[in-house]
Amino acid sequence: MKRFFLILLGGLYLGACTSPVSPPPPDVIPEPKMTSMLVELHIAEARVDRMGVVTDTAAIYYKKAQQEIFKKNNVTEKQFYKSYDYYLDNVSELDKIYAKVVDSLSLKEVESTKVVTPPAPATLLSPNKK
C-alpha cells in the first residue's frame, strides 16, 4: 500500500508539469483497460503486503499475481510497460487514469468496510393463534 501512495504522489507531482499529449502507438492499452488493470495490480500488491512475508517471497507472490492479471486481460508484460511508459510521457493522461484508480480503490475500501445489518427476525406467531 505504501508503494501505491508513492506512485500516486509521484503522479500528482508529475501532473504539475504539463506536456502535450502525443498520439498513442497502436498497441498501447486503452485508458479504461489500463485503469482497470492498475486497480487490480494495486489490490494484488496490498494483498501481498498484508501477507506479512519477507520481501523476496512477497516479490514472488506479487509477480505471480501480476502475471495472472496480464493473462486475464490478454496483455503481455512488455505491452503493459510500454503502455505505462506512454502514459508517463503523457502526464495529463496518467493523471486522469490515476484519478479513476484512486476513486475505484476508495470505493472498494468503503464497500469492504460496510457493516451488513441482518434483517429483523420474523415473529413466530401464526395468524390463527388465539
Range of helix content: 55-70%
- Category by helix and strand content: mainly alpha
Q: What is the percentage of strand-forming residues?
A: under 5%
Taken from the alpha-carbon principal axes, the silhouette is extended
Q: Major sheet, described briefly?
A: none
Round the Cα radius of gyration to an integer and report it: 21 Å
According to DSSP, the number of beta strands is 0
Span between termini? 62 Å
Helix and strand run: HHHHH
Helix tally?
Answer: 5
As residue ranges, the low-confidence spans are: none
Mean pLDDT: 84
Count of folded domains: 1
Task: State the gist of this model.
By secondary structure, the chain is mostly helical. The protein is built from five helices and no strands. It starts with a helix and ends in a 17-residue tail after the last helix.
Report on the architecture of this protein.
The protein is mostly helical and 130 residues long. It has one domain. Helices cover 69% and strands 0% of the residues. It is built from five helices and no strands. It has helices at residues 2-16, 31-51, 55-72, 77-89, 91-113. It is extended, with a radius of gyration of 21 Å. The N and C termini lie far apart (62 Å). The model has no long low-confidence stretch (mean pLDDT 84).
